[in-house]
Amino acid sequence: MNIIESFKLDGRVALVTGAGKGIGEGIALGLAEAGADVALVARTRTDLERVAERIREGGRRALVVPGDVADVAAFPSLVRQVEEGLGPIDVLVNCAGIQRRMTVLEATVEGWEQVINTNLRSVYFLCQAVGKGMVARGRGGKVVNIASMTSYRGFHTVSPYGISKAGVANFTKVLALEWAPHNIQVNAIAPGWIATPMTAQMGADRIRWVNQHVPQGKFGTPRDVAGLAVFLASPAADYLTGQTIPVDGGFLAGNPWPPIPAQP
Ligand code: NAD
Q1: What residue ranges do the domains of the chain occupy?
Q2: Which residues carry out catalysis?
Q3: Which CATH class, in words, describes the domain spanning 5-245?
Q4: For the whole model, what pTM was predicted?
Q5: Which residues line ligand 1 (CB under 6 A)?
Q6: What does the pLDDT look like over 130-168, one tens digit per residue?
């Protein structure tokens, strides 16, 4: 296959969670631009309809499936709905996630469970629900999980979030091993600070800190993450599995010194 052809997703069906905003929206649009038909899952129908409209304008099929990823019991019917609407799922992107700030002393069981259930339990059981069909069909597939820099490092006041994302990175390795014989590649992306509704909550001090400590001196965009997602979903990544790859403007490479001015 021509190398550029191997990055294309024509004829593939992708399911993206958290597709209504931010990184998930960017990934859904990127996969569609690369040729995939995309099922969009998040809680807010109006967000999903907006993304679906853009995908259809680009000539691909889009299916809106409102749902809460914390509701794991609904996953078998969610997968059925997607496969009846678009066909067998070739690519699963687990992007839905939330962040809640709490010190360990402040944490409650409810707060802990909300983060773990949304960010980690959902990933595990949606992989299981989609994987049953993917494995049975025997024609391979791709899973792309969204991890975080907290998969690698401890960050102040986000312990349940960090635990969930470290879990996503570990689960990515285990699933890659279990599904390697089925030609299903399982990888994760660890975004750095990306400009989305999630990071729009950050105060001016934190924003300044990020711009001074990220070697590229700025936040990334959902589009910056989408490029890697398209690659990982494509035949170009057929021999790449079990990895969590940062897209972080160089943050995990080390601290720049002296702090550099923000890039335009
Ligand atoms: P966001 O808040 O902007 O968007 C999150 C999306 O997930 C929304 O569409 C939301 O509706 C959906 N979602 C949240 N909870 C859900 C639930 N229970 N069921 C279904 N959908 C749900 O967030 P974002 O910044 O785009 O983050 C997306 C993913 O990337 C998350 O997993 C997040 O942890 C991760 N991430 C983000 C950053 C960043 O800097 N923005 C950095 C590292 C990792």
Answers
A1: 5-245
A2: 161
A3: alpha beta
A4: 0.98
A5: 17-18, 20-24, 42-44, 47, 68-70, 95-99, 118, 146, 148, 191, 193-194, 196-199
A6: 999 999 999 999 999 999 999 999 999 999 999 999 999
